[in-house]
Amino acid sequence: MSGVGIDIGNENCVIAAVKQGGVDVLLNDESERETPAVVCFGEKQRFVGSAGAASAMMHPKSAISQLKRLIGRRFGDPDVQNELKMLSVESSESADGGILIHLEYLKESHAFTPVQIIAMLFAHLKSVAEKNLGTTVSDCVIGVPSYFTILQRQAYLHAAAIVGLKPLRLIHDCTATALSYGVYKTDFASEAPVYVAFVDIGHCDTQVCIAAFQDGEMKILSHAYDMSLGGRDFDEVLFSHFAAKFKEQYDIEVYSNDRACRRLRVACEKLKKVLSANLEAALSVECLMDEKDVKGYIKREEFENLASRLLERISVPCKKALANADLTVEEISSVELVGSGSRIPAITRILTSLFKKELSRRLNASECVARGCALQCAMLSPVFRVKEYEVHDSIPFSIGLSSDGKAIPAGLDSVLFTKGQPIPSVKILTFEYCDLLHLEAFYANPDELPLEAYPKICCFTIGPFHGSHASKARIEVQVHLNLHGIIDIESVTVINLIFISSYCIISAADDSHSNSEAINISPVSETIDNASDGSINKNCEASHHSADGTRNDKANRRLHVPVSENIYGAMTKAEISEALEKELQLADQDKATELIKDNKNQLESYIYETRSKIFSTYRSFSSEHEKKDVSRSLKETEEWLYDDGGDETVDAYSAKLKDLKELVDPIEYRYKDREARPQATRDLLSC
Ligand code: ATP
Ligand code: K
Ligand code: MG
């Protein structure tokens, strides 16, 4: 068993693992360090990652990418509609307002949710990791953008559950980056903290965080973001520029042709990369449309002018992060720029002038998130021993709680968890005794979230309570903001007012809290919660205690208090098992197709090898008759392969191979027999 760190980018995914002496990025089947976030449904099997990207060129209508933009979001969201337009796949609204992606696959119509598609990507990354590490992988830490809603976080957890991954934590991308920065630095003092800004510009978004480093610990002071500012937006600037130009110059309407749009976008992304290293660049696409070849040219300066609106926006989240951290640029010791989208030279210029200092690029810009995730995974896993290092993250949005439609006045502004508060956190709430307690969590300040996040998060049903407490009791609920940044109920306590001396602690039957009866009630808990499955009922168990904490034997009976959590829009338990089932079927199908391919390839290479051997190595070990026979069979089988046998079963290929071997084996045997004799005997025989 091994643990890994996973960075799911909108364009590129990276997996890393802690090994002796450091963190390694794991190579995929193509020996690449980055794996494209693409799932493509081929004719007979799915292709994911690099193979998915290759297959997407040929089958754009069955390729799904940019999954980060779709996960846990509502079909009706105008921004989601724009995202869906960028893909060539068919989509519709699901019964609960989510997204369904429709595909024709293996002569059947399929509808997949983004969670299922992300699960396919997870499964692929898991298998890449397993091949690399030579063991099964389930423990992992997955990076999430700080702007992800609770539903989006839960969607990642469900996707992971579908493919047997167990996230020990969902960690904010920038926090992972900060961790991979801080853990190796040993020159931080124990008193005065050092403040560092991390700016990550990826394919679709920009994320910023400010971290305070001290000896052996780091604390995230603030998160900020622009969820719609990344490398792809710069491509789009070039795309519109050249689309307009080509209309004028060649009289072609690129927008009217999907294929032309795709090809021009690809060319523009290349052009943008060339402009990062050169002051000017040329673009040329053969037969873009209407059988016309097009050519273009642009200077870096002109590109920067075209992109000036985007470039201006980069400062915004940086300033927000500074303000939220209550720091000035002078107080920031260093600015780390990461994410491959940040390679545009103008970005460095803008940030240098904003932060009034040279930027540092100490981190590997494309790998730091995955590396940080791997480190965090090793720290949380009991299997590894890593350096003691404390990671204090903070929540990027405020959460309120209501009971029967009324906000519960907890803390300031009746906000339960305020933006900036540590992750994890626990709050204790006391309620009048009732049979059944309904609570609902909501985003207290929806402006802190991007776009149209549904303000309501989830509801909890606690109870029914059984016992003789009636009006003489109170219910104490510990609400937990867990390590993933998801709200759940940690435990429920019934305080019996008749017997002031006797407590009844009802704790969530959660494996990570086997000792929860002994947990001191305090506003902030350091415990870790893994079982964050939104829709799954927990059975809380209770045992009576006396006030001093020792067990009151007489009253020591277990009570069961069901606590159910329902995150709006998340999958139900039944939907998860259905998705699991379906994923298994699809995976079996992929395996079966792979097996057929392997058998076909074996037959094919046997034909080629034998054909060359029969006139070389085997030459003097076969009669003319045999040679003729073998040659004819090889030719026939080859013709069959390219004709009727192009699409056959494993049995058919192995039967053909067996037939060939029956003819060739006697020859091969004679040859091997001769090879096995000592040289002296061979010399004798050849005289
Ligand atoms: P995100 O973090 O938004 O989810 P990601 O992690 O997949 O996405 P990255 O791999 O960090 O994104 O960055 C991909 C972006 O970087 C692409 O838009 C790509 O065009 C851009 N990029 C890569 N190399 C360069 C370069 N040399 N110059 C400019 N842009 C580049
Ligand atoms: K990435
Ligand atoms: Mg990224």
What does this structure look like?
With 687 residues, the chain is of the alpha+beta class. It has 4 domains: 2-228 and 314-380, ATPase, nucleotide binding domain (Nucleotidyltransferase, domain 5, 2-Layer Sandwich); 231-312, Actin, Chain A, domain 4 (Alpha-Beta Complex), CATH 3.90.640; 395-571, Sandwich (Substrate Binding Domain Of DNAk, Chain A, domain 1), CATH 2.60.34.10; 576-686, Substrate Binding Domain Of Dnak, Chain:A, Domain 2, CATH 1.20.1270. Helices cover 36% and strands 28% of the residues. The protein contains 16 helices and 30 strands. The strands form 6 sheets. The protein has a 10-stranded antiparallel beta sheet with strand order 21-20-24-25-30-29-28-27-26-23. Strands 1, 2, 3, 4, 11 and 12 form a 6-stranded mixed beta sheet that branches. A hairpin with a 2-residue loop joins strand 9 and strand 10 (108-112). It is globular and about 100 Å long. Residues 500-558 have low confidence and may be disordered. Residues 7, 9, 12, 14, 366 line the site of potassium ion. Potassium ion is lined by residues 7, 9, 12, 14, 366.
Give a brief description.
The chain is an alpha+beta fold and 687 residues long.
Topology:
Blueprint: E1 2-8, E2 12-19, E3 22-25, E4 35-36, E5 39-41, E6 46-48, H1 50-58, E7 63-64, H2 78-86, E8 90-93, E9 99-105, E10 108-112, H3 114-133, E11 137-144, H4 150-162, E12 166-172, H5 173-182, E13 194-201, E14 206-214, E15 217-226, H6 231-250, H7 258-277, E16 280-289, E17 292-299, H8 300-306, H9 308-313, H10 315-325, E18 332-338, H11 345-355, H12 368-380, E19 390-394, E20 399-403, E21 406-407, E22 422-423, E23 425-432, E24 437-443, E25 456-462, E26 473-481, E27 487-496, E28 502-508, E29 538-546, E30 559-567, H13 573-614, H14 624-642, H15 650-676, H16 679-686
Helix pairs in contact: 3-4, 5-12, 6-7, 13-14, 13-15, 14-15
Residues 7, 9, 12, 14, 366 line the site of potassium ion.
